[in-house]
Amino acid sequence: MKETEEKLTNMHVGRLIHMMSHQMKRDSNSVASAIENDELTIMQKHVLKFVLLESLHRDLYQKDIEEEFQIRKSTVTGILKLMEKHGYIYRESVKKDARLKRIVPTAKAEEMRPKILEHIQKTEARLIEGIAPEDVLICKKALGQMLCNLSEMNKEENQKDE
């Protein structure tokens, strides 16, 4: 335990986050494999997972996917076209602005939601296993602040490039 603590003390925060991210991506690929079909690529499965989860709370648009995955509009358009072709989503016009298309999961996609939610709950439980709830909250606050710090740094750097 003392050796692990010493190792963590000397490790850069960025490296630890990178290692966590790598593990989460490995786990995320098992979620993608939980979407049992060969019609969709891994990326399309990740987008479908995002659509299924986020559409529970809000309306989703192409821009949301572009921002979440940090990918270009043309790439998202291609992904959504194929997902629509395979019957996982449909796009419907918004009354207030016909140019906007809301992304809606189909019944075929909805069938996958329980399995995905179950996987997320298991992963979350495993992540926080043995950690006091107040420590989990401190960790979330610290990670949230780090995310804001990086976002600000990126904004500043982008302004310099302009």
TrEMBL record:
Superkingdom in the source lineage: Bacteria
Keywords noted in UniProt: DNA-binding, Transcription, Transcription regulation
Gene3D superfamilies linked: Winged helix-like DNA-binding domain superfamily/Winged helix DNA-binding domain
Pfam families in UniProt: MarR_2
InterPro entries associated with the record: HTH_MarR-typ, WH-like_DNA-bd_sf, WH_DNA-bd_sf
SUPFAM superfamilies for this protein: Winged helix' DNA-binding domain
Protein name: MarR family transcriptional regulator
Species: Blautia intestinihominis
